[in-house]
Structures are given as structure tokens and as C-alpha cells.
Amino acid sequence: MRVLAAMSGGVDSAVAAARAVAAGHDVVGVHLALSAKPGTLRTGSRGCCTVEDAHDARRVADLLGIPFYVWDFAERFTEDVVEDFVAEYAAGRTPNPCLKCNERIKFEALLDKAIALGFDAVCTGHYARLATVDGRPELRRAADLDKDQSYVLASLTPHQLAHAMFPLGDSVKAAVRAEATERGLAVAEKPDSYDICFIPDGDTRAFLTGKLGARPGTLVDDETGAVLGVHAGVHGFTVGQRHGLGIDAPAPGGRPRYVLALEPVQGTVRVGPAERLAVREIVGTGPTWPSGEPLTGTVDCVAQIRAHGGTTAATASLVDGELLVRPAEGVRGVAPGQAVVLYRRDPAGDVVLGSATISRTR
Predict the structure, then answer these.
(1) CATH class of the region 214-277
(2) What does UniProt list as catalytic (predicted)?
(3) Does 125 carry a binding-site annotation?
(4) What is the DSSP string of 233-297?
(5) Which residues are catalytic?
(6) Does domain 2-125+167-182 have CATH number 1.20.58.630?
């Protein structure tokens, strides 16, 4: 097969590309330039897509003996990921930019270009597994559950998965680094990138304030309606947040307060005790089905609502085009804008059933 290997400059994509070459595929490496100012996007292990990363990817491609190119996707990334991120926070929602990047950049813009150029598949360093069952693609959790990235890939379509390769799905991270060392790849011990790549200092509130400006509002006790303080904008908060609320007076009995809801039009941040965070019903819009098979009836499943969060047993069904998920027990910290991903337990590894963007909870 003709394979386009997306090479970020990190160890995972380097080993994925190396495995594609070792498997006998005709591989071409490509690094995506996602910033108009690439020198500003890395601080140690924070950020990505810098000139340094492009050089690291090129050195790996040279060692593997494959052609290598840098493609400029900065404008598309800004529009589809960064601007979407800012708009979602301004609307009082909590988006996942990694999920959006996979959906819009790596498996839409990149894959479309790859297919137009005659490639059969795009190879990435994601930790997830793919299988074909009855002619349909099946997305599964990775063998290394600590690194599993199926959550941020769950919005991909059957067409996209049919043209995807995840060579690291059956490996654990330690083995990937060891293999990189054995292959003589200089990125073997390079730190993993984490947090939001386009906010290298990790200060999301400052980044959003710089984009949106100050939008003053009030912090309100959800139980009593009392105004507890003021803030510079709802974009500085997310549901479930406990620290950094800027409230001086303690709650009755010294109980900690949490963000319960955001009301961007009024500029209100509602806060209250932890028990008021419990959610027993989640409604998601824009459901996607990686295998191409929507839910029928009510299905027992496992739900995950954060990329690095735990899972909970649940039932799920489609109601008027929306995904209705009822956790077996109340779950906390469920914020509109996040994705809810459903899995089916399977001896071969949890299988992704579907995904939707959380619009509201009860």
C-alpha cells in the first residue's frame, strides 16, 4: 500500500512510520505545520509543531530512507481548532481540541489530500486498535490503557477509519521507546507533548482572556441565589472546577464549592457543593458511529466523558436524533461541549460504539 505517515516529530509517530516501512508499505512522511509562528508552540514537553519538531521528523525520515515533506495546514488549524476552541468557551462550553484536530485536520484535511494524491492510508502514532468485522471497521481501545486514545478518535467515520493505520495499538509505551532506541531514532527519549498544543504555557484562562477580552459577571450560589463575587468572564471556568474561583467566603460548614453551570449570556457562574454535580442523564448531539451502525433500541454499554477520565456503566439510546445516555450512578464534572463516547465490552478490547457532543445534562 501507499502510506502517508503523519510525523509530528515525537517518538510515537516515528515508530509508527518505522513499522509501516518494515511492513513493506511504500511510505512517505509528512509533517504538518499548524502554526504561522511555529517557534512559539513548544515549552519543554508542552506544545508541538515547532521548527524543532519538523527537524526531528525529517531526521527520522532520513534514517528510514523515505521521502519527507512539510505541509502547511496552519490556516485550517486556526479556523477549525483554535477558533472553534475560543468560540466554544465563549458560549460556556468545554471543548476537546485534540478530538477536533483528529476529526478536522488529521482525518479530514490530511486524509482528503492523501487520497487525492493516490495514497491508500494515513498512518499515525495514535494508541488505538483497528479491526474489520463483517466488512466494517471496528475501533477499539489500545492495549496500553494508560495511553489509549480511542476517545479522541471516536468521532471518525467508517470511511476515515478504512483509510487509517494505527501501528502502535498493540504496544505499550515503554516498548515503543525501547524500539525507537534499537532503531537508532534520536527521538527515543523525547518528552511527550501534553496539555493543549497551542497554549504552551498551560494558562488557558489567560489565553482565552487575550482572545475574548474581559467579560465581567457574577459568581452565584446555586442554592441561595446569593452573589458571592465577580469574575472576568465565564470562559475562565468549566463545570466541575473547584480551584481558582475567586470566592473569599467559605461555604456553610466549610464545604468546598464547585462550578455547577455556566450562563454566558447573563455572565453568571453558578457554584455549589459537590453533590449537586451528580448527573444521571446526558444528552449528546451530532452522534457519529465509527462502524457505520447507529444504536437500535436501548443498549447496555460503558460511557467515558473525558479523555483521561474514568468510565461508568450506562444505558444509551437514540431519541429524536440525539444520544441519550443514562449512567448507572451519578457522574460528576460533565460539561457541555465535551464528548461522550460509548464502548461495548469485548474480550478483544473495548469497542467504540459511538460518540456525541454533550449538549445538556440532567
Answers:
(1) mainly beta
(2) 101 (nucleophile), 197 (cysteine persulfide intermediate)
(3) yes
(4) -GGG--TT--SS----SPPGGG---EEEEEETTTTEEEEE-GGGG-BS-EEEEEEE-TTS----S
(5) 101, 197
(6) no
